[in-house]
Specification:
CATH superfamily: YbaK/aminoacyl-tRNA synthetase-associated domain
Helix content: 25-40%
Radius of gyration: 15 Å
Order of helices and strands: HEHEEEHEHEEEHEEH
Strand content: 25-35%
CATH class: Alpha Beta
Oligomer: single chain
Shape: globular
């Protein structure tokens, strides 16, 4: 069952959270709309490769990852998006693309965009395309122990930058 590892982890840590069921959605914007959550409060998990090692980049659903900024923040020589084939087996109990942002549960580093730290709550996929977990950002940060950095940009900024 998707999310079992995450739920057990949160329960063992006595974390208060809300489980939100929503209609099946695949993109982060669809999920936010379906669950009636702000795209700024919803976190999406992007799997990246830092010098061929898998890592999680967690950012607001309303923004885009900037690999150059992530490279600068991590000090990696090469930063690329991981393909589904490269990470699918790492998350056996999760539906592909619905991984929760807890890299520590999967033996990988987690990087969180600074903008997520501005909200008291964080919501994220719970291992399926039909369920979210919402909890305090403080609890998330304490449990996931992410490395905070600036690596997201507005989709509008990204379009302008690529045109220039």
């Amino acid at each position: 069952m998707p999310g079992t590892l995450l739920r057990e982890f949160l329960d063992n840590q006595n974390i208060k959270f809300i489980s939100i069921s929503h209609s099946k959605a695949f993109t982060s914007q669809e999920v936010a709309e379906s669950a009636h959550i702000s795209g700024r409060e919803l976190a999406k998990t992007v799997i990246v490769k830092l010098d061929d090692k898998l890592a999680m980049a967690v950012l607001p659903a309303s923004l885009m990852i900037d690999l150059a900024l992530l490279k600068q923040a991590t000090g990696a020589n090469l930063v690329t998006l991981a393909t589904e084939a490269e990470f699918r087996e790492t998350f056996p109990e999760c539906e592909t693309g619905a991984m929760p942002p807890f890299g520590n549960l999967y033996k990988m580093n987690t990087f969180v965009d600074q903008r997520l730290r501005e909200d008291e709550q964080i919501a994220f996929n719970a291992g399926s395309h039909t369920e979210l977990i919402k909890m305090s950002f403080g609890d998330f940060e304490r449990l996931a122990n992410p490395i905070a950095a600036n690596f997201s940009v507005s989709p509008h900024t990204a379009v302008k930058a690529s045109v220039a």
